[in-house]
Amino acid sequence: MNKRVNLKIKDLEIFVTNILKKCGLDEEDAKTTCDVLLLADKRGIESHGIARLQKYVNGIKQGTIKITNKIKIIKETPVSLVIDGEGGMGQPIAYKTMKLCIEKAKKNLICFATIRNSNHYGIAGYYTLMALKEEMIGISLTNSAPLVVPTFAKDAVIGTNPISVGIPAEKEKAFLLDMATSTVPRGKLEVYARLGEPISHMWATDENGIETDDASKVLNNLIDRRGGGLSPLGGSSELTGGHKGYGLGALVDIFSGIFSSGEVGTDVYVKKGESSGVCHFLGVINPEAFTGIDDIKKNMDYYIKMLKNSKKASGQNRIYIAGEKEFESEKRNIDKLSVQDKVFSTLNLIGKEFNLKLKAI
Amino acid sequence: MNKRVNLKIKDLEIFVTNILKKCGLDEEDAKTTCDVLLLADKRGIESHGIARLQKYVNGIKQGTIKITNKIKIIKETPVSLVIDGEGGMGQPIAYKTMKLCIEKAKKNLICFATIRNSNHYGIAGYYTLMALKEEMIGISLTNSAPLVVPTFAKDAVIGTNPISVGIPAEKEKAFLLDMATSTVPRGKLEVYARLGEPISHMWATDENGIETDDASKVLNNLIDRRGGGLSPLGGSSELTGGHKGYGLGALVDIFSGIFSSGEVGTDVYVKKGESSGVCHFLGVINPEAFTGIDDIKKNMDYYIKMLKNSKKASGQNRIYIAGEKEFESEKRNIDKLSVQDKVFSTLNLIGKEFNLKLKAI
Hints:
Two copies of one chain form a homodimer. The first copy, chain A, is α+β, with helices and mostly antiparallel strands. Helices cover about 40% and strands about 15% of the residues of chain A. Chain A has helices at about 10-20, 25-40, 55-60, 90-110, 125-135, 185-195, 215-225, 240-260, 295-310, 325-330, 340-355, and strands at about 5-10, 70-75, 80-85, 110-120, 135-140, 165, 175-180, 205, 230, 280-285, 335-340. In chain A, α1 packs across α2, α2 (about 25-40) crosses α4 (about 90-110) and α6 packs across α7 (about 215-225). The model of chain A has no long low-confidence stretch (mean pLDDT about 95). At the A-B interface, β2, β4, β6, β7 and α8 of A face β2, β4, β6, β7 and α8 of B.
């Protein structure tokens, strides 16, 4: 077991925001980025939390992430936007775009934005949550570094390309889907590789495109681009529905990278130091486009109860709704966070460079 | 092996349309319904083709499907529609709604429609294809009879709730995703039950909600409502990503049944003879909302080639794009269709009642 360290959210906010400011981000962008990272940790998605700070700092240093404090609107209609992120930090780009989408959806009921030339934007669900706070339906998709092998292919061509959709409810917690279109994220393989345990045959394929239970092999193959990688949701074969996960992953690439005339597939993160070319797709639908917020929230409560009150499988005592575990985790972590010892020391290593120090509780 | 019979498309068109007219549908609705059914067979999706005619005829006789020749617009905005199908035949309801969506998307760039109180509408992809013919992006979702067991649940609560999205390409065939959110459809279990072969553990759970390889048991349990059913895409466990397929299935229920204030989950197809309450969600996005049709089609060609030209897994010689196999099947079946002997005799049994006869070639 990894040792863990407790940290105050307040301390983390100051520390992470200051580091990002020292890297060149303005106050607003640093705060937004910090907020997206901390929310991931609070919601229990550690792979997308402050553990990634090092990658962002490196990205800025290497020039993959440019210092900008605006987004460029390439095209605007009453119900849509095409945005160029100009290689900036993903979180503020997506945040600012989602803000615009919410404003437009308030007026015109629907707004979709496709964004090119951005960077890793953290958890997809952050932006759907922005819509939920306004009692709107939120959509958030992004492409990412090629790690997933299409059905019958040998090489990783598409990203883990997540899909997030959020629907408000009344007394129940909102429905908040936020899922990679691969069976598991790369982080899961890293955990199994460290433990030396075999992985499920549904998770990944080797350098020949054949299912494997060897996590270390898959990770090394990905680093050396020898072939193989993560399997789409449904696994590597049509028998178990892998072509569906592959289709969904491609769909995310299309909405993000094709509609914005940005990068897709293996063109994302091609060279270190150059723009990553990550593309997103964000959307807001005003419930007034349909039967209205009151009816929809009531209907959602009814449906959520129907699912949760359904009979449990043998050995199970609870049925979850998408996002439910994460909302509960967020509630537990309002004031403080427990992070891995290793993450804590890495944060202080980054801080040292900028004369900043993070204290444990 | 089942024996197969060859039939002329022209003969089938006349035969099926006439039966539907004799059942009470008007000329236009009968033709639409026939067209949806035949396209399914042409595209190789036999489970949703003319083999279902018996079910539709029974539905009309039992009153589950009402004879209507219109759709009722409950709410209309520049970018959305809420439709009540008033219990009518699903295909004409969805066809007419999609026509309206296309018109509105031509003017206002985006139109989404949520439809309550409809019936089984055939292949979801039929309606996305309507958008593709107009060089638009099409979306088609529907809920259906509860057959799928949520993660950690024992009973089938949600339908196989398909997702179809279509994106136009230039020289390449369009990208046309059309997938159930279960790992496999019920029809697949029926094939294995007939053959007495074990099914994949990713496909279904037994009356205790535990994975099983016994197709007959699952089918009988579903009929007798003893528990168990199809597993979501990703299987019955979180380890293999089943919660993602469950989340996607619920999402389809929400867009179709919650946004329209219609039926969801176990409220769909509750009682024989009563309205099924099936709900759909249809959408059209005009490429001009984003970087425009010319750019998007060119980008799609580039992406499709990237995927198809990628290296193949050991033992594989081709990578497919969503919908590609079906487009090739459609091309093969332009003039004639090969159907199962059993389907042919059932069709003639239905025809006999109406003094109609279908001849084999």
